[in-house]
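Consider the following assembly input.
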Amino acid sequence: MVDVAVQPNRIAPARPAARKSGLKTALKRKSTTAFLMTLPLILLIGILVVYPALYSLHLATLNKSMHKFVGFGNFIFLFKRDTFWLVVKQSCIFALTAVFFKVLLGFIVAHFVHNVPANKQRRWRGMLLVPWVIPPAMSTLAWLWLFDPSYSAFNYTLSLFGIGPVPWLGDANWARFSVILVNVWYGAPFFLIMYLAALKSVPEQLYEAAAIDGANWWQRIWFVTLPMMRNIIAITTLFSLIVTFANFDIVRILTSGGPLDHTHLFATWAFKLGIESGDIPLGASVSLFMFPILAIAAIFILRDVTKRGNEA
Amino acid sequence: MSRRKLTRRQFVAATAATSAALITAPYVRGAYAAGKVSIGFWDHWVPGANSASTELCKEWGEKEKVDVEIDYITSQGNKNLVTIAAEAQAQSGHDIFQMPTWWCHSNSELMEPLNDIMDPIIKENGEVNDTVKYLGQLDGKWMGVPACVGSQIKGPCSRIDLMKKYAGIDVQEMYPAGAPPKADNWTTDAFLKAAEACHKGGYPFGIGLGETSDNVDAAGAFFRAFGAQLVDAKGNVTVKTDEVRQVLDYYKRLIAFLPPDVAAWDDASNNKWLVAGKGAMIMNPPSAWAVAKRDAPQVAEQCWTHGFPVGPKGRFAPFLPFFWSIWTFSKNKEAAKSLLVHLSKPSSIEKMVNASGGYDLPAFEKLTTLKVWAEAEPPKGTLFHYPDPYKQQVMSIAAAPAPPKIAQQIYFQATQTKMCLRYAQGEKMEDTLAWAEGECEGFLRS
């Protein structure tokens, strides 16, 4: 005999209204929590990056008084200006040279720090990170005083050896050198830290195998270290290229784009045209021109990384 | 009865949601409703000078029962220009904003006409000079009330001892305190000779050729002294003229007597040059002397501010006025106008000028002989001729008389100083002129 009463015709009771328990369920899901936790950042990026970028695109299609739609008119105007092509050339020189030296310096110093005994490494890492940690506007101001036409500490020191004075910021070539120097000083620690971490992840057995095969120090770097670090080098180079190309503070503080516009980058020239000269649409056009150049660089570098990833 | 427990996951999710809402809730600062007026003043270089404007605004606010909110916005890093651009784009912000030189014209469509208060102000304080009209008026509409705060002349500030010793010029005799100037022989040629002599003596004139305002103003005054215009008042490009060639030749000779690094000078470089005792003259308002008073008294007591040299086409002083303007989107225009009238009273102006130690220059005719300039010392009389009390000079601004929206671009892209530098560094005259012509044609776009 069945204890449980069976009522074959009974309709299964309907579930209660799902609203409250639907929210509860949603809140319990990991993806909801993750979304809510990243929401502030998403909103900040949306408000401070995406919206201004789209607004910039809109501004770049307007005339100077912002009353008329001119399409690509601003870009066509820029393409006919010598100063614009000077800025393009200078931005490329600045970005490529600075990134090259940052990579090189970061790579070399990472090797030195890697070979420092483990108990002292933290100290060295901390000290070498300082340039990157100080707000760039502050450190660049200190460099400005070091390069000052009247009070340069560098020129004072050089004068003790009968050299100089060097027009650090007054001569076009020296000004370019100074701006690149400060950027390398500021950015190299980032590369140092990334490459140090990458070095630590290269398996020791590979170096042992190379040593057994009679490889010298250069061959170890070329055949073991560099191939293992290729992806991280590519990615850090790409990030740094983008950030360096878009640099504003170092050039703005040191030279404001001078002398004779020979250190202007896209960002500083966009500020000069857009804010100081009162032509906001033209300033927007200049700043947007960075995008296609950087997009092309990003495609090539990331494609290479993906290809190597697929091969592995 | 089961107790509903709050799980850790629910707590974290709820906290995240609340934080997200709080962090991202927009704080909208718009123009205030009736009963409030907000004003964005320029943050003065002279320590303590802001207190005068704060007190005047408070006093007016208490009398009129209006809440006044004051922001002091620095021009360091062009923060004030960025704020103006943001408020213009958003059509929201302060009721009154202190506009530098070109910005009334730059935002002409958003400037509330102020003829109703300017006419009585001019009647009370005296007429304004042509540069103030050039920068503050559009088709007869006043776009701002000339502000004494921050308005300045960037004329010569010379070292009495060095000019006497090396150039044989007694600047105190040329511009005696309390008496009219005797400066007919203070010409651009005499200036060049003095520059050469002081350079030979090891104390060159500190006149920069960078792209910042001090450098551009000095070059602009020389351009006007020679009658050289890159763009005329009607908007025609007039680069390839004899006057422009003359001033470029003049500057090429002058540059040979200036410090080697002048192409890199910013607005602080000439101040440092004077205070360090390295130069016999700079072009600057009295801020450099004020700092020397504090840091290098032996330099300060040898400083004498005086007029610009006269060129073939006249004697022009680099004058930079500020304006107090009301945005058209202000929600309390009548109260804002009332505040501006209060700030423009002679007693208010005198209070602000005194607080600035004589730096601030009223644009009105009747207010150029305040006691502060006669009494500033050391040495006594050092600032007497700063406001040009005998109207010896024509107040001017670099790139004038080009239409202001074009002149602004010539000014900020430092076309004049760049021309001087390019030519002095060896470029052919005609190439320099061709380059400048191309630049100016680009500035004509609307």
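Residues 168 and 177 of chain A are 8 Å apart (CA to CA). Ask yourself how this observation constrains the way the partners meet.
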